[in-house]
Request: fold
Amino acid sequence: MSISSGSISSSPAPVAYDPGSGPVLEVDDLHVEFRTRSGVVSAVNGISYSVDQGETLAILGESGSGKSVSAQAIMGILDSPPAVITGGGIRFQGRDMLTMNAEDQRQIRGPGISMIFQDALSALNPVYSVGFQIGEMFRAHRGTSRKEAKQHAVELMDRVRIPAAARRVNDYPHQFSGGMRQRVMIAMALALDPRILIADEPTTALDVTVQAQVMDLLKDLQRDTGMGLILITHDLGVVNEVADRVAVMYAGKIVETGTVDDVFTRPAHPYTLGLMNSIPQVEAKGGRLNPIVGQPPNLAAIPSGCSFHPRCPRARSGVAAAPGRDCVGDVPPLRLVVPGREAACHYSEEVLGV
Amino acid sequence: MSDPADIAAASVLPEPSAGEPLLEIRGLKKYFPLTQGIVFRKTIGHVHAVDGVDLTLNRGETVGMVGESGCGKSTVAKLLVALEKPTGGTILYKGQDVAKMGGRALKQYRREVQIIFQDPYGSLNPRMTVGDIVAEGWSVHADVAPRKGRLQRTQELLDRVGLNPDYVNRYPHQFSGGQRQRIGIARALALRPEIIVCDEPVSALDVSVQAQVVNLLEDLQDELGMSYLFIAHDLSVVRHLSDRIAVMYLGSVVEEGTEEQVYGSPSHPYTQALLSSVPLHEPALRGQKDRILLQGDVPSPADPPSGCRFRTRCWKAQDICATEPPALIDRGQGHPAACHFAEAREVVPVDVD
Ligand SMILES: Nc1ncnc2c1ncn2[C@@H]1O[C@H](COP(=O)(O)OP(=O)(O)OP(=O)(O)O)[C@@H](O)[C@H]1O
Ligand SMILES: Nc1ncnc2c1ncn2[C@@H]1O[C@H](COP(=O)(O)OP(=O)(O)OP(=O)(O)O)[C@@H](O)[C@H]1O
Ligand code: SF4
Ligand SMILES: [Mg+2]
Ligand SMILES: [Mg+2]
Reply:
């Protein structure tokens, strides 16, 4: 397709897609490990999820639980070595990307899936102006001329509300504040009208008014284009306001999934419950915060059984445990606990009080 | 912790007298040149990153700083720890003008005012061990820790921030985000600061690890009597930690008050918009709050509006707002706000429990 100036925001989805044909993206039992000199780090240990068109799936969870690494696996930008995908599949519009050659993968990902990163400064190249870097998306994928690409870059910068875009298009990343750099990243990700946008902490560096604008912008885009959104974030407020479903991760696994309403009002996994109890409130100064006790697991030596058991107030083992449900010895599978809700805890029914 | 008496003996800065703030910023300014051209760099203007900030910090107090992305919070932080030089204004520390400090006084200032950065990934040198990172400051401020006991002292510090002391020889990449922030805190503590400037120290962490770090900062303050300037976008965390809050917009403070004043009766329209945009995590409250949508774009700090800087996006703006910069004074709300038409308004739902 051709891009003429002014058409970016209204251009239809560039990738033909039949909405009746199932999820846009499916991740199936994905495993990723880092083979380092000091040992094997199991960063992603069999996660599965799918995203429909127009849907927003939020992935939240512990710092270091494999949220970014699994996103990088989908994007094909894992740092390998040391990272190795040791199992599983990633299907985009029904086609398994992991079995394709590199060029086919590039053809699919380029326009189909894009990503906004957590760390905008290191994701941008310090020696090129931001306008050049945004324009590069058009030049590389659509062969747009340099001049036209810059024109598009200014439009995109305007669209993500970077003030004085025409004047700042030639500025370098270090000349922008953290929040402004994040908007530059968003502009780049939106350039090709992706079918799936993975946003890894897209608003962490932004104030809440801009955060609200950015989330509105992403929502509008999603409505216009039917793009699926995978939102990785620690901000439970943002998840509550924009997501349809959530997946909660701990130690490289999904430990709970469900609708936002279900998971937030009645967690089925003790880790999720611990997260909810740690949140400070904006309505009051409040007393001492109530974090989950203990330290996150060492991924080079993940605890046996349920990987949360050393920190879990409900953990049971030995004679106290039900048969086959020993938190130290038996791995709890992610299972349907009540209709529409999955959790990986031997005692979810008790946590839920059902 | 080793005996602070030996340090006090070396102190060249007088202790602030009762009622005198530990730190006082007056009219602080930082302009960055905007240049064009590659061979002949021509200055075509200035980014008014910080443009007349007044702020005080008392001993043992936490002042929270919130505001628009790019409004100059990190620049204030860098000016405070002398990573940038002010274009104008003064920083008074223990009653002395930092710009006029020399030799030993300046060295003492640099030791006593430490910073923890936003980014737990970029702010630690990946080639240094954790022990070396924590001990780095002692190469300049050798008097803080006698050479002989340094390893033990480093291990004490790691233990104090909740890291295993046996990890001294590990590298930053072997730690999680929350652990890296603890390393940054240990590095700051190593110099026995009076003030720690915290520039978004918990933004990258999950809420449970965030709660651990927040509790740690509170414990350290209770124990050591330090003061914090705490910068963050998470208004709930800021409320939880702070005694007083300063709200910034485009280079200056637009509202200031106790945690209760600013959250309970925000009086500047920007503060109201900010607080109304806080996403709430309770599904039952979703969409219940009236969000104040700001019109228009954030003006460029290279070309700030005349009069009130917020007027281009303000629903209350009148003619006077374009001509008269509103002073940061109390107009009857019990705390100062820089708006000609300051008026308290309840935006945050009152305690839900
Ligand atoms: N190059 C590497 N070598 C070894 N381990 C690595 C490497 N990169 C990442 N890891 C490990 O993989 C795990 C998963 O990291 P990931 O970045 O996905 O976490 P995350 O869930 O995104 O955390 P956060 O919320 O802090 O961003 C981490 O424990 C991390 O230490
Ligand atoms: N070295 C520099 N040269 C030019 N402009 C700069 C420089 N450093 C910062 N600025 C500009 O100064 C303004 C203030 O930036 P600063 O980083 O202090 O904002 P901030 O409030 O910390 O923002 P954020 O919330 O996004 O971290 C921004 O417009 C930024 O682009
Ligand atoms: S399986 Fe056991 S240890 Fe794991 S979360 Fe459930 S109760 Fe806790
Ligand atoms: Mg991450
Ligand atoms: Mg900043």
